[in-house]
UniProtKB/TrEMBL annotation:
Domain of life, source organism: Bacteria
Membrane-spanning residues: none
InterPro entries xref list: MoaB, MoaB/Mog-like_dom_sf, MoaB/Mog_dom, MoaB_proteobac, MoCF_biosynth_CS
Keywords for the protein's UniProt record, in alphabetical order: Molybdenum cofactor biosynthesis
Source species taxonomy: Bacteria, Pseudomonadati, Pseudomonadota, Gammaproteobacteria, Oceanospirillales
Annotated protein name in UniProt: Molybdenum cofactor biosynthesis protein B
Ranges where the MoaB/Mog domain occurs: 12-156
Pathway, per record: Cofactor biosynthesis; molybdopterin biosynthesis
Length: 170
């Protein structure tokens, strides 16, 4: 049996924020650095206002594209009136990845204690594109990427990962 080899994926990064710009988007910068340091391609990056329809518009274009394998979304997962990332994404999912939010909050508990209950992180698959939503802090982005997402987007990770599924597109 041959050993699995790393396959770089094209990953889109969306920052959901009413205030951040390309110059002040530290969480987007952090995710881009994580993606590229791992050997993947940060194929496209955008910032959307915390508005259900603006978020869906951007992500819908990416999940319709055969060129994008995964989407990372930072921001809009809290409980303020404007936080709407889960509401924007869940209707787009063909399947929800239930364990992602559970695992994220479990890992985050060790870092921020019970404040993790205010994190409405979600993930799912839409048109064979895997989508991971995380809080807007750089610390949360690092936790999500380093402790969950990086392994799930690495074909060498066993016993399972999302790479074969996302490569079946097109």
């Amino acid at each position: 049996m041959s050993e699995a080899v790393f396959i770089p994926l094209n990953i889109a990064i969306l920052t959901v924020s009413d205030t951040r710009t390309s110059e002040t988007d530290k969480s987007g910068d952090t995710l881009q650095a994580c993606v590229e340091q791992t050997g993947h391609v940060a194929a496209v990056r955008a910032i959307a206002k915390d508005d259900i329809y603006q978020i869906r518009s951007v992500v819908s274009q990416w999940i319709a594209s055969d060129a994008i394998h995964a989407v990372l979304i930072t921001g809009g997962t809290g409980f303020t009136a404007r936080d709407s990332t889960p509401e924007a994404m869940i209707p787009l999912f063909d399947k929800q990845i239930e364990g992602y939010g559970e695992l994220f909050r479990s890992l985050s508990y060790g870092e921020i204690g019970t404040s993790t209950i205010q994190s409405r992180t979600v993930a799912g698959v839409a048109n064979r594109t895997v989508i991971f939503c995380m809080p807007g802090s750089t610390g949360a982005c690092k936790t999500a990427w380093n402790k969950i997402i990086a392994e799930q987007l690495d074909r060498r990770h066993r016993p399972c990962n999302f790479v074969e599924m996302v490569l079946q597109r097109g």
